[in-house]
Structure prediction request, 360 residues.
Amino acid sequence: MTVLVVVALMAMTIILPSQSMASVNVDKLVPKLPTPTIYSPEMSYKTTDQSTVITGVTFNDTRVVVYIDNTFNGYATVAEDDSGVASWSYKPFLPLRYGVHTVFTRAESLSDTKRSETSTPVTFSVVHNYPAPTVIGTVVNEETDYNQPFVVGLVKNDSVVKFYIDGELNGQVKVVNHESGTANFKYLPASDLTVGYHMVYAVAYDLDNKASKPSVTINFYITDPSFVVPETTTSQSENVVSESEGQLNTESDESSQENSSTTVEENEEDPEESAGISESTKQVVGWGILGVLLVGIVYQRRNTIGRVFKKKKTDGSKVDVEVITKDSKKDKSWDPKPENQNKKDDSDNGPTPPPPASHY
Prediction:
């Protein structure tokens, strides 16, 4: 029994050192990197931005792997620093859906030989935009003054409305809820406003301090009621009217004289122009009448237009002309065929003698 105990102790002293050496060797082969830190978003953060930027810090010569909802989403952009601690940021490559999300990171060496443990997960939410308030306008009544008008409008229940006048925060009000779910508000500016134009818009916040988009900007004008337009007396008004009428009459007389002189000049020039026009008209009419006469003559002599003059040579230099009219009879013996014309007729006694002189 004693021998067995001694053998067991000796075996333990041999095995334990070998295990400790193995663990040391593994640590040397796969060294660990520091875990990166997430600065934003913070735990339980709510945002309306579906592409919210995730930021944090890590060490130089590392890259940061980002996981969203337990899924690899991408590598962060690392900006190294002389201090040895680098900052990093990451924007999701796709818009995040509305709801709750979880993000964690891991650091890796540039040579892929080292990596850190995963960082502590951070949970945040992407929510819909809070409804913006509706600014209706400004109201002056017995409860306020002309230079401190109420700014009135509508907003969702459980809202705090902040008002910006001329681009600067002027104040806020907590609305009184209404059973319809939409509350009305009225806001009195913190101080008197100067005479002139002003601009106002509002931003609503829910109970979690989530802000809406700014409302539509409303322009309004502050008028000083003490400023009164001076009234003119009746006599002054009559004088002004009479002077105006006299000036108008003088201008009308001058314009009528100018118009009459222009008319006279135009009338003086008209006879010459009319004479010139009449001469040209006469010429046109004369040529037209001459043309009509020529057409009539041609029409009357239409029977003689078709005459054909045929020249025939005689024994001397004298040329006799035979007149062929439309009523002349055609030679029945004439053959239009070329072969008949080329054939010489034995009975042909030569050319036909000219008609007697009494025929002409």
Summary: The chain is about 30% helix and 30% strand. The longest helix spans residues 234-300. The radius of gyration is 60 Å.
